[in-house]
Structures are given as C-alpha cells and as structure tokens.
C-alpha cells in the first residue's frame, strides 16, 4: 500500500508517536510524507520515507497529485483544527481529493489506529483493484 503521513506543526509529536508505535507495520509499505513531517519521522524511526515539499510549499498538492492518479491508498493527516494555516486551500484540496477518489483518510490518532488495524486485517484489500472514478 502507498501511505501518506502528514501532520501540522502542533501535531508532529502525535505523528511521530504513531509512526513509532506502528513502525513494524508501516515498514512493509511505501511511505510518503510532506517535508518536515517526513524529516521528523525519519529522525525518530528507521522508516524509509519519500519526502515531498513542506506543506506550505506545495507538499499537500504533491500528495494530492498522487491521489488524483489513484496512486495513494491511505492518507493519515493529523491536521491542527485550532491554528490557521497559510496554505489552508491546499489542505482543503487534499481532504477533498480523498473524498473524490474514495481514499481512506484519518485526521487524528484514533481514526489512524483504526485504519492501520483495518489494513492489517485486510479490510482495505479492495484497494488492490485500483480503478479510477
Ligand atoms: O503543512 C503541512 C500539511 O498541510 C505539513 O507540512 P510539513 O510536513 O512540511 O510540516
């Protein structure tokens, strides 16, 4: 599976904790991240991650482009609902594309855990028959 990991600054500690907790599972998949999120995860785990630009510099859009061509299977995006982001339109566009293309999306730790556990038990195997909309 291709999995995107993204977090706003106040949620970086959460995504690092998540990556550490699920490192063994995540290691078996192709991981992608926005710039700073990917850096923090790399510094704290042994995970191999393809890093895109930082979010405000287009990283959300780069991940969105993968979603648009049906090349992303899961998006884990710990967004900060209490802080205005300079690139809010990009954030909304990314969330919107997940819904357009029916890509499983988790925006907090609880839902991310459910997604990963579901993936482990095969709940997302329908993603193997990747069809565009
Ligand atoms: O801003 C982000 C998502 O909208 C995340 O970007 P960074 O991982 O570069 O901090």
From TrEMBL:
Lyase listed as a keyword: yes
CDD domains, alphabetized: MGS (cd01422)
- Record-listed E.C. numbers: 4.2.3.3
Which SUPFAM superfamilies does the record match to this protein?
Methylglyoxal synthase-like
Entries under InterPro entries matching the protein: Methylgl_synth, Methylglyoxal_synth_AS, MGS-like_dom, MGS-like_dom_sf
Q: Name one Pfam family in it.
A: MGS
Gene Ontology biological-process annotations:
methylglyoxal biosynthetic process
**Which keywords accompany this UniProt record?**
Lyase
Ranges for domain MGS-like come to: 1-133
Q: Which PROSITE patterns match?
A: METHYLGLYOXAL_SYNTH, MGS
**Tagged with keyword Lyase:** yes
Top-rank taxon of the source lineage equals Bacteria
> Kind of enzyme, top EC level?
lyase
Q: Which GO terms describe its molecular function?
A: methylglyoxal synthase activity
What are the binding positions for substrate in this chain? 8, 12, 34-37, 54-55, 87
Record-linked PANTHER family: METHYLGLYOXAL SYNTHASE (PTHR30492:SF0)
Question: HAMAP family in the record, alphabetically?
Answer: Methylglyoxal_synth
Q: Return the protein name.
A: Methylglyoxal synthase
